Amino acid sequence: MTDSRAEHGLAVELSDLTRVYGSVRALDGLTLHIEPGELVALLGPSGCGKTTALRILAGLDTATSGTVSVGGKDLTKVPASKRDMGMVFQAYSLFPHMTVVDNVAFGLKMRGRDGAARRQRAGDMLDLVGLGEHADRYAHQLSGGQQQRVALARALAIEPSVLLLDEPLSALDAKVRVQLRDEIRRVQIEVGTTTLFVTHDQEEALAVADRVGVMNAGRLEQLAPPAELYSAPATKFVGEFVGLSNRLPAQVSGDTAVVLGRDVPVLPGSTTGSGHALVRPEAVSVVPDAGGGARVATVMFLGPLSRVTCRLPDGTDVVAQLASTEALRLQPGDAVRLEVAPEPVLVVG
Length: 349
Ligand SMILES: Nc1ncnc2c1ncn2[C@@H]1O[C@H](COP(=O)(O)OP(=O)(O)O)[C@@H](O)[C@H]1O
Ligand SMILES: [Mg+2]
Description:
CATH topology of the largest domain: Rossmann fold
Oligomer: single chain
Structural class: alpha+beta
Helix content: 25-40%
Order of helices and strands: HEEEHEEEHHHEHEHEEHHEEEEEEEEHEE
Number of helices: 10
Bound molecules: adenosine-5'-diphosphate, magnesium ion
Strand content: 25-35%
């Protein structure tokens, strides 16, 4: 990391965590290391164990096996009240009958800080999230986005060792969600607190995190910086879960595959022999060609980019994402040739 976050934060280590509820293995050997000051997003479908992992880190739930440490200290048996973690949940977690500043100061009061120090710290945190002027309002007088900013200020007021966010944006509408996402990232970089951000929304995870951990069925499939996760998925699950991909027939030999008649390098973890290459829509180009076997099926205008669906002679649909200036020259029914960019692809069975 290029900022000073590493000097402020503490390392978090989840080691081989298992959590069994009856017949459900919510976590199945989860190991995750978060660097001091780093923001890791845990991304995965509903039910994959994200909240369970966060609750075990917070001490709100106990692992069936495995350990939790923060700053090199084993916290596995330390109760939640002694872990000093700041938490923000989906929504509606403020005390509605308390003012904003009292909400933010609440944790400090519990920790026995005197009134003047509490008010000072709470005011600073409200300034940090841009709500200094709303200190004396009641929580219920704020919009959903403002309430979540107060929740963030409250979580940070206690100077937590770790900041935990469980789907903090999912109750908000799209525009506020993006604003607050960027706000959370700005604040996190400023305070340097090591952060675990849980979400099922891939765009959110990719936008906010230093590294994204993709979870599937209680395990971590891949932990990587956003661009790497997108361009070099390590497993079939990650390739299919993150971003939109075409599945194009591919024949692998050695470290290359033939996809749509072209040689393309394959990523580690690819299958051998025949399979399907996961090809991003932006890696497909559409060339008008009277002799080409493919036909344009639909052109969907999305603003600067358009999504063009073409049909191969065998009936396979291929989605290409093109600059709209290019796409608008294409009409449904046009004969075209499809080409795949020579970027590495994951080939799956
Ligand atoms: N208290 C519980 N009792 C029984 N099963 C639970 C409990 N908490 C979570 N689970 C189960 O554990 C799995 C993981 O849940 P959770 O961690 O909440 O997933 P996520 O946050 O990724 O949606 C799910 O199958 C869920 O039903
Ligand atoms: Mg959850």
